[in-house]
Fold each of these.
Amino acid sequence: RNRHKMAAAPEAATHRVEDRRAAAAMARRKRCGLVAVAAALLAASRPADAQMQFEIPAEMLQGMFGGGGGFGGGQQRKMTEWPKTENSEVAPEMEWLINTEWKGKTAKYLLLRDGIVESPLKECEHEGMCLWAANNGRVLINTPTLKVVRFTIQGVDSADRKKLENKDETELGKIKLISEKASKSGKKSQLDFSRVAVADEAENVIAADLYKILDIAEDEEQSKIKSKFRRLSVQNHPDKGGDPKVFNELREAYEVLGDAENRRYYDLGGMQLVKNIDSSWKEVEGQKAQLDAQLAKVPKHHPQYNQFKAQIEAQKQQFEKSHVKHEIEKKLRSDDLEVMVPISAAELYTGVSKKDYEFKRLVICRGCRADPDSAQCKDCGRCPPEKIQVPKYGNTPFGKQVVGMREKEQESRERCREVGMTISGIRVPKGAKDGATLKYVSDIGHQTPGKLPGKVVFKVQRGSPTDTYTIAESDLYTVLHISLEQALFGFTHTWPHLGDEKITVKFDRVSSTDEVVKFKKKGLVGEGGQRGDLYVRLAISLPEVRKGEKTLTLNAAQAGSAPSMEREDPVELHDGAAWRVWPERETAIIGGTKKAGSEEL
């Protein structure tokens, strides 16, 4: 019996080893199955638009490599800064330089909206290392090694300002940027216009006007478009000798205008918006297909299949058509636009129940991208710049890689014109505060190719260009011009004020120029219902004297002449005191000095 046991022991040991191996294999299969299901469940729990890729955040890269692009925590790259003595802004009158490129002997400089320079120079390789500004008739370029280089602008005085603003390349070619300081060789650097940074020519996007292709009016009834297309397609069908190109254009135009929703998108944002909307819907369909593919990977007999399927179905709920449409339009909608509506002192005093205001909005000139020189496009300039997503690169252990995306602005190829649009029914409350919201209207913002117009918010701007009063809180300021005769012999002037009020200024003699008359509680209604004051400055106008005349005869002014009034220069209140802007400083006459030392003008 013992010999039998000893003989059987190796066989039993073999069986036990095989059992353990089988158990281990079963455990591995279970673990793999659980991992697969867990991975599928995790994928289902992700948002549908999540990308199945690994991206190293830029912040992590900077932490790993110290911002210097090498291993071992190098030093953080020091960004270029403007000296305190320099003005780093791009003045509004110099914004025509934005998105233009200028070339010198060795390099080119692309001037972007955010004050950043793109250049092939090594020191400008990283974003934000090279900067630019434009103000006071100069262009400044700031680089790490050259520091601030100042350029004067030649040719801008004789150039057509409107054409410059529209980025007309012929007009821009007349401009030269000349450095203020000469180099060691004694020559000054010169930058010549190179190009305008414009959007790439969109492929498969019709540039012509779709309404003209189908020969229909812009307000044509939707039901009549189909019959019009049928007649034209029969006439131009290639089987009947028609031009295939014309036939294809008719078909593509009908695919857009024959669908009410696509027609609306075309009217609001051009053909590029139609393409963008279509691409967004295709992206959604792709995301739904990914969810179905994830469900297909889980065996139907798996105990957690129903749970996984329920999660997939829950994820699909976000693809409900009305919800998706709202999200797509939200993504493709331009930012809200704030428009300041000038409100006169009289309107602020009484309030207005219904005020009309003409808002000038930009609309796309259809067909002008295809033929910008046609007669119908002569009043059209460039549309607002388009924004695109471009890769942001960084140094990684694997070399230079994409570490994120950044937004870049470029000029549009489309053309736009200003069209006045009357906004009715604006209610202005009494004493409305500066910047208070009056009204907002959706979908009437500037048209931008590929985008839906945003909402326009109309706000209060206290004071009107046609007003004779400058407003500072609840006080009013005006200038009454009087002649030298009136100042010497006296005058009386009366004019209508706020509501039914009238103001009378009477003087027998004005003792000094710029004398100010104060009328208490004749201003606007302020805090607590108290009215401010009215200030009238008397400005004496000197008479004209002919060249060579040595005498001047003055006669008392006749009564009853109409007062000559204008708005006072802007007034600001600080700590209870009023401060007036002094524009005469900018036009002051430069005084000269004689050899003897006496000063003269």
Note: Confidence is low (pLDDT under 50) at residues 1-10, 30-74, 593-601.
Amino acid sequence: MPAAGGRGQRRPLRRNNPDFDESPPRNNARNVNRRGGSGQSGVMGGFGSWLASMSGAMCSSCGSDSNTARMEKEDTEGFLDTEQLLPHPEPQEPVREEPKRKKGSCIGRCLHRVCCAICCILFLIFLIYAIALGTLVKMSADRYVNISPEARRYTDMYLTMKNITHSIEWPGCGQATSIRDIHDDCASPCYASDLPKGMDKFNEEHPGIVVSYLSREHELVKQTTLRGWWLPAGKLVVPEPTTTITTTTTTTSTTTVTKTTTTQTSTTKTATTTTTTTMDPAILKKEREEELKELQRDKDKKKDDKDDKEETERRLKEDKLSERGHEDNNEPEPVPAPAHDGAAPPRIILVPSMQANSWHVEPQLVAYMLRDLGFDVLVTDYRDYGLSEQSRDQIQQGSDVYPYDVLGAWDFARNDPYNFMGGPVPAEKVGIIGLASGGMVVLDAFGMEGDIPAIWVDSSPVSMHRRVVDETKEYLETLGLPEDYAEHIMTAFLHPTWYVLEGWARLRGSSFMRYTPEKELPYSPDTERRVAVVHNKADMVVEEEEATSLLKLLGSYPKKFEVHDWDTDGTCHGSGHLATMFFEHNIYKTRLCEFWRATFDMDPETCLPDEDSP
């Protein structure tokens, strides 16, 4: 037998070998004697096994498959795989080695963090700026782009000249429900309660009506039906309407009923309605022939009275357009008042602010003054305002469209196509007054139409751009900005607010800059037309710089305009905007009289302050 530990002896199993070493293998597993030997023979045996395995691999690569199989068989015949008998060590978690830090990596990380912080701060600043700018733009859009709720105020209250004075809001006294609500305790010191009481009495004795007319036609502007208050200086003569009703009923054996109704009104309109029910064809044919004969007679009569018919149709068309106004007034169609001195009195178009309508107290008060001075007044409304036709967009169209609304009212008052006012008058007998932002529209219309003899503007801005910038500045000043940075902050917001607002208006179909006084007034004829400019130094809505700019613009064309300026200084219950007509009522009325009587070639010497008038 071969010696112990020899090459051909199989190592005994554990249960037959009491000298089996159960100790765990050494760390260097490659030097462990897989055959169980010890000492040099064990080392050589392990080396031999490794050498044999390497040789087999080399031979296998060279194609010696038979030698490899024989060596593997000899190597495994007398051995037992100790890995099946030795205990396995517990798996250990791999140790994460820290990557070696490259030179300069700390500086790179710091720069990265600083850049991220700067970007976050800039984004936050931009976000805050965008929110603040959006707030300012929305505030301006609500005032200058969107239609204000004041545009339709009072139109659903069924007001007439008999009750409008004590049903609208007065400064200091608020919304009134009766004339007793407007008393000295709430009105003073701005005005006396005698002013609204005198106005209420005058309007009750001099009623007015709501009339309809069209804006001036233009290829770029949609023609719209407008409505306004026609307020004559004289007392309206309202005749009793005459109504004739004739009813005829005929009954035959064949149950034939013929009913004819004829109604004749003050407009000489005749309407005939015939209803026939019959069971006999012969009688029905006879009735039909009689009806045709009657229609032929009516046709011949209408042909003879063609001119009268056209005039009647125009009246009926106007009645239909002003149907809402007649319903609200609950007054019959008036007959124009007798003309003063045998001629129709001059007429003045009154244009309210774009933040009000013809029903508000300011236009109604000025209309009362003018009527008391002997001038007929048409208080007009823009489209989407008052009872005028409503558009789909519901946006303010300022100098883009409203000048054509004003010119349409001027055309109506001059031509009087429906004979509401006593017939047409020459163009030099029709002037225009504009209040607040309505004054800017009047300036545009004045530059477009060279036949308007004169205009009167009170608290009027000259540029929508400046108006928006000034209002934004006024709002920012109320926020209490630091004095050191206030100018820079305002610079960052004022003009961007205007540019964003203008772009927003253009997207909605409007434009602030299509027609402006700077563009239109230079094209006026060299006829020295009269312009009155009224401004209150205490007005914080339209500041004094606006009036200065307007006077400078008008003064640049001495051959075109004869300028009359009037500066006042005072407030009415904390507001200086459109306040002069209240705290300087008598002087305001006198100035109106002097300016307009001189414009219409009337004697201005009679325009003395009436101390007894309110």
Note: The chain has 17 helices and 13 strands.
